[in-house]
Write a structure and sequence with these properties.
Length: 152
């Protein structure tokens, strides 16, 4: 029983999760040379649900599911999640996130899930020799098309 308690305590501590910025590298406005255009990105919307027609009654909002492939050397350009929360699962490969809140790129590996929410501003780069496959679920605001720029 003591071993279980020790394990739970160690997991509940302040350690970083996979795909998080190391605590000693957190900083504001860390992006100086953010990418502004997509490179080698294929983004396919698989399905969506109009949330205005569901019990949550969120006007002009859709929950959508996408598949994204980022080629070797590919870039998902700088964007904000101010109005578009998202969950991104890395299905295969490895990719670096360049966040406005972190002084170093954050590595995301297959199986990692990135939580993107209010305050998230970032861009991604595939620095490997293999494609990266992502599954993305996000809530988009159809009333603000600029928040849904291609490949974001």
């Amino acid at each position: 029983m003591a071993a279980v308690a020790a394990l739970v305590a160690s997991l509940a501590g302040g350690s970083a999760h996979a795909g998080d910025c190391p605590a000693d590298k957190v900083m504001a406005n860390a992006l100086a040379d953010a990418a502004t255009a997509p490179i080698g990105v294929t983004d396919t919307e698989l399905a969506s649900i109009d949330l205005a027609k569901e019990n949550v009654h969120l006007a002009q909002r859709r929950l959508r599911m996408r598949h994204m492939t980022i080629a070797p050397g590919g870039v998902v350009p700088f964007h904000s999640h101010e109005d578009r929360p998202a969950l991104i699962m890395v299905n295969s490969g490895e990719i670096y996130e360049n966040s406005s809140k972190c002084a170093v790129p954050i590595l995301h590996k297959a199986g990692d899930i990135s939580r993107e929410f209010l305050g998230t501003k970032h861009w991604w780069k595939n620095s490997t020799n293999a494609p990266v496959e992502l599954t993305i679920a996000d809530i988009v605001n159809d009333g603000k098309p600029a928040t849904m720029k291609e490949h974001m």
